[in-house]
Design a protein that fits this description.
- The chain starts with 6 loop residues before the first helix and ends in an 11-residue tail after the last strand.
- It is globular and about 60 Å long.
- It is built from 16 helices and 12 strands.
- Helix 7 links the parallel strand 6 and strand 7 (152-156).
- It is α/β, with parallel strands linked by helices.
- The strands form 3 sheets. Strands 4-11-10-9-8-7-6-5 form an 8-stranded parallel beta sheet. The chain has a two-stranded antiparallel ribbon with strand order 1-12.
- Bound molecules: flavin mononucleotide (FMN).
- Flavin mononucleotide (FMN) binds next to helix 2, strand 11 and helix 16.
Length: 389
């Protein structure tokens, strides 16, 4: 068993274990990948104030996200095709989240279905919806999420049209993977992954195939997604989805204070400051840089969460210090899943929890709920990208 001391260790194993097509799908951003890179490196513009001789006994990272108790302010982000990174990936990640006491979010474009995840877990999870033109399908999706006991929906707003990732086109990304000489040659070097995949029936889009009109066979899915996403989505439609669901709603993909105010107006329970992990608008600012202005605009009216670029507990602490009540991790848990299944996700969460706890202590705080901007030293460059009127 290798020594796993940081998220990067899991990424190295993940890279060796999973077919190139799915590694590239995870580890890419849109176009030039500038925003993808900035999401992580901009955390370096925030440093931490070391404090000493403060009683550090009895620390706690526990808090709440949308009124639900969480062991730390970290949720698993919705990630499409998670079940291609490891057989039954969504079920395994949801189980790991449950064990660690943090929320799991299932993507619309998951491999395991809502029903599969519900049948294999005991705690309610969150369900992410893409806004699709087909209102009947949306209603059925909400109904299925209700029946499965989901405690919130996460509506993703930043994928009305799709950003381009060069590698996915070049690799011919699909689920199940298309068998070409190149993909076969690569998969032959990933035997354990392949054997586990052969051992499961879940190899296509579980929430969609057999449920959406015209998608009884998986090969028609790519044309379906291109046509199905609703490019005319607006705030009135978001309000309609909120009514249709009738429960808690988190709006994900907000990067601008004006949009954050609109989210308050439609009565959302929380927003996620996010640029989709740099996979959509290349050239957008990093989420961590967008966070303070949004917290200032709406932080007293709505719960503000954040994602994109988090690779450590220090990153989580910095986001919380800037006013995030919660964070989401995408790639950090996928590295763990691809590397070693459920155990890998548990390890990723434990690495982050330990880093968060120790860093918080060395900053002189013993309760995550008392962390504020006072623990940060902020580089002048952090506020560099501002609108000029
Ligand atoms: C491989 C991959 C697939 C994703 N699929 C979805 C998705 O289906 N729905 C969604 O709302 N966000 C999706 N996202 C975005 C994540 O929810 C999250 O915003 C992002 O991963 C955060 O950045 P991080 O990976 O740097 O933590 C995906 C991200 C990745 C890396």
């Amino acid at each position: 068993m290798p020594h796993i001391t940081e998220i990067e260790d899991l990424k190295r194993i993940y890279r060796r274990r999973v077919p190139r097509m799915f590694y590239d799908y995870c580890e890419s951003g849109a176009w030039s990948e500038q925003t993808f890179r900035d999401n992580s490196t901009d955390f370096d513009l925030l440093r931490l104030r070391q404090r000493v001789a403060v009683d550090m006994a009895g620390r706690s990272t526990a808090t709440q996200m949308i009124g639900e108790d969480v062991a730390m302010p970290v949720a698993l982000a919705p990630v499409g095709l998670t079940g291609m990174q490891h057989a039954d990936g969504e079920i395994l990640a949801a189980k790991a989240a449950e064990k660690a006491g943090v929320p799991f979010t299932l993507s619309t474009l998951s491999i395991c279905s809502i029903e599969d995840v519900a049948a294999n877990t005991t705690k309610p999870f969150w369900f992410q919806v893409y806004t699709l033109k087909d209102t009947d399908f949306m209603e059925r999706l909400f109904e299925r999420a209700r029946t499965a006991g989901c405690s919130a929906i996460v509506i993703t707003l930043d994928l009305q049209v799709q950003g381009q990732r060069h590698k996915d086109i070049k690799n011919g990304l699909s689920a199940p993977p298309k068998l070409t000489p190149k993909s076969i040659a690569n998969m032959m070097t990933k035997v354990p992954w392949g054997l586990e995949m052969l051992g499961t029936k879940r190899r296509s889009f579980g929430n969609v195939v057999g449920h959406a009109k015209g998608v009884s066979d998986p090969s028609s899915l790519s044309s379906w997604t291109a046509e199905a996403f609703d490019p005319s989505l607006d705030w009135a439609r978001i309000a309609e989805f909120k009514r249709m669901w009738g429960g808690k709603v988190i709006l994900k993909g907000i990067l601008d204070a004006e949009d954050a105010r609109r989210a308050v107006d439609v009565g959302a329970d929380a927003i996620v400051v996010s640029n989709h992990g740099g996979r959509q608008l290349d050239g957008a600012i990093s989420s961590i840089r967008a966070l303070p202005e949004i917290v200032e605009a709406v932080g007293d009216q709505i719960e503000v969460h954040m994602d994109s670029g988090i690779r450590s507990g220090q990153d989580v602490l910095k986001a919380v210090a800037l006013g995030a009540k919660g964070t989401f991790i995408g790639r950090s848990f996928i590295y763990g899943l691809g590397a070693m299944g459920q155990k890998g996700v548990e390890t990723a969460l434990e690495v982050i929890r330990k880093e968060l706890d120790t860093t918080m202590a060395l900053c002189g705080r013993k309760n995550i709920q008392d962390v504020d901007r006072d623990i940060l030293l902020i580089d002048d460059d952090f506020y560099r990208w501002r609108r000029k009127g």
